[in-house]
């Protein structure tokens, strides 16, 4: 799942850069610019770059005074933060904890909320800022003051409190976290589980705390929660795999009747646990006739991936047959399952680790094909060709064209080729800044044509995930991690 996290991180960075630039770079009307303003004003990037450079250069005195820390905490209650007060407080670190805890006891902390901000990344209240600062430290002494917020009438307060309490993970957090895991709001339960996972990762959670969370998490295994709390099976397995296994595979939870069963199978797949045939094969047989109804297509897809980890004699035949399924999700899972069955188990990890450690030029040609198509497909699906070309992924558009040809995505190849022709005879610059200048100068007609190509791309029926899996299998020597 690492590549998913990497992709998410990239999108969050893009969102963060756009957020900062849109806050600092205003249109003539005084309003924060939208995406089109970002697209048509390359200066946005420089504004954001300057902002991040100034933030990264921040320092706080080692001997910062108590009065200065108190002043900084007081300023958390002002919505505008133009001089990095929040970021400077992060640098203060544990010295700020007593003042943040005192702020939790302030009556206005329970009621103060900011107005609607310009972006979803804005803090919604001083309490959210305080929680983010405490969450980075996980101080045990904050447990009891935070626990009071688990009974707050506003779910925004409850979810932030649950996130930090789970991260602290001491015995004092138990009662409040049991309430959070039983909250009526999906997101409160979800934030509680994210907090627990963070506490486990930081090795802060006590054994008593985790033992107390186990039965509360078990209750979420078949709770209808709009897919928000699918983390429960993973947490149970992380807390105690031996205790969790018989529960996860029990007839009560490992059944087609449980709409959350896909998360159970996903958790076992993520842990590379082989689901026994006596559980897996009957499940596959039972769910297959229902794959045209959500969420059964996802259940069947996860079960195919489980079969790849513990194949029977007919597994390969099953995977090849399901690659022709009318259901896109089943197609993709069957292709990925065939790759796992063929020994290609972590394609994107291999590619991204090489990229991170050695750079783009160190990728082999098949890896470049895979990576550039993966990025192109993701960018266009997220924000169209404009997003692709304005971001660094577009630096490698020539390799993306070669990659689309190599994997057999000829319709999408033609679409990208048409898009590059809008930039003139020499095509888009391979330099990100110059390419942004090019696209900022597009006429309204060029913008319209690029938008029409977005529509063609979305209507295209070539399944990129399937084609990428097939390509990785055909060039498996490039996608298997060295032992």
Can you describe what's shown?
The chain is mostly helical and 483 residues long. Among the domains are: 91 residues, no CATH class; 81 residues; 131 residues, A middle domain of Talin 1. 64% of the residues lie in helices and 0% in strands.
What would the keywords be for this entry?
483 residues; mainly alpha; A middle domain of Talin 1; 64% helix; globular; disordered N terminus
Anisotropy-based shape: globular
Strand content: under 5%
Low-confidence runs (pLDDT<50, min 5 residues)? 1-16
Percent of residues in helices comes to 55-70%
- Radius of gyration, taken over Cα atoms and rounded to an integer in Å: 25 Å
**Order of helices and strands, N to C?**
HHHHHHHHHHHHHHHHHHHHHHHHHHH
The CATH architecture name of the domain at 348-478 reads Up-down Bundle
Question: What is the average of the pLDDT values?
Answer: 91
Number of strands: 0
* CATH fold-type name of the domain at 348-478: A middle domain of Talin 1
- What is the name of the CATH class of the domain at 348-478? Mainly Alpha
| Straight-line distance between termini | 20 Å
Specify the biggest β-sheet. none
Tally the helices.
27
- Structural class category: mainly alpha
